[in-house]
Specification:
Blueprint: H1 3-12, H2 16-37, H3 41-58, H4 69-89, H5 115-123, H6 127-137, H7 143-150, H8 154-177
Helix pairs in contact: 1-2, 2-3, 2-4, 2-5, 3-4, 6-8, 7-8
Length: 178
């Protein structure tokens, strides 16, 4: 049993020091994931608090399957909590696919843009755009899965994604000019 596995086992048996160790090891990463979805820092902190309550209330159900499985499990919980927050507080606009102003597919070179800047640019997107973009790109969900998760149509998911890409391209270009 390795160190992480031992810490998880202790946390599963109610050891608060082990829970604190897990929190310290993963909080920064999970907060970054959360802020990809929830742009407002105060709201993101609230979502993180709810996520960690859920994580530690359910850690006894977690089954260690190797390095990285705890982080993946916790990330899924954080994303789900962020989506709950978004569903409660955001509006997704249904869009007829024929009315979508499809972005041109020109590529914007982002190689000169630091990852933290990309993260900040993504946080500037409207809630619907940001949420669908994150689910599609980072979580690799299909528009059908996204629609089900958010209670929207597949066409709305597709339009939000295409509009997000267009706006993201514009914001990156503006960033590169500064």
């Amino acid at each position: 049993m390795n160190g992480e596995e031992q810490t998880i086992s202790k946390a599963q048996h109610g050891d608060r020091c082990a829970m604190h160790e897990i929190y310290n090891a993963h909080a920064a990463y999970l907060f970054a994931v959360c802020t990809r979805y929830v742009a407002d820092n105060d709201s993101a902190k609230d979502v993180m608090q709810e996520a960690f309550i859920r994580i530690f209330n359910n850690i006894s159900q977690f089954r260690y399957r190797g390095e990285g499985t705890l982080r993946a499990w916790m990330t899924r919980i954080v994303v789900n909590e962020a989506l709950k927050h978004i569903r409660r507080n955001s509006i997704f606009y249904d869009t007829d696919i024929e009315k979508i102003d499809m972005p041109d597919e020109e590529e914007t070179d982002i190689h000169g843009v630091p990852p933290d800047d990309i993260h900040d640019i993504i946080r500037q997107l409207p809630d619907g755009y940001r949420t669908v973009l994150n689910l599609f790109v980072f979580e690799q969900k299909s528009h059908k899965e996204i629609a089900k998760m958010l209670g929207i149509s597949e066409l709305t998911s597709a339009s939000q994604y295409h509009r997000a890409k267009k706006l993201l391209r514009k914001l990156v270009k503006e960033h590169l000019r500064t």
